[in-house]
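Sequence only, no structure available. Ideas?
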Amino acid sequence: MAMSFDSYMKDMVKPMREDLTRLGITELLTPEQVEEAIEKSKDGTMLLVVNSVCGCAAGQCRPGVAKALQNDTLPTYTYTVFAGQEKDATAKAREFLAPYPPSSPSIALFKNGELAHFIQRHQIEDRSADMIAGDLINAFNEFCK
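Reply:
I predicted one. C-alpha cells follow.
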C-alpha cells in the first residue's frame, strides 16, 4: 500500500504541531494570516515560533517555549509557522525577521509590530530548554509589560 508524501508528512508532523498548539499558540497557515498577525501585533506583543522537524526543535525549542509560557508576563498574541510545511506562510514570516537569515527553528518576539527579540537556530542547538525559557522569560519581562 502506497501513501502519498503529503499524507505521510501531515501525519509525521502532527505531534510536532500539537506541541505548540496545545499551549494555545495559533498556527499561521497562509501569508495572509501572517500579515494579519503582524498587523494585530502593532497594538501589543507577539511571540512567533518558527517550528521545524529537527531534533533541536523537539528537544530544546518547543519545550523552552512551553516553559516560558508559564511566566506571569506573557505576549499579547502567540503564533507559529512550520518551516518546510506551510512554505509560503513561513517565507512571509521571514520577511519580518530581517536582518536575520532564515533560521528554523527560531523564536521571535515583536512589540508594536517591530522585531524586539530574536533567537536563532544556532542559539537553540547548543542550549537547554531551560536556558531558552530563561531567555524568553527575560524578553517577556522586558518587552511585554
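The two ends are 54 Å apart (CA to CA).
Hope that gets you unstuck.
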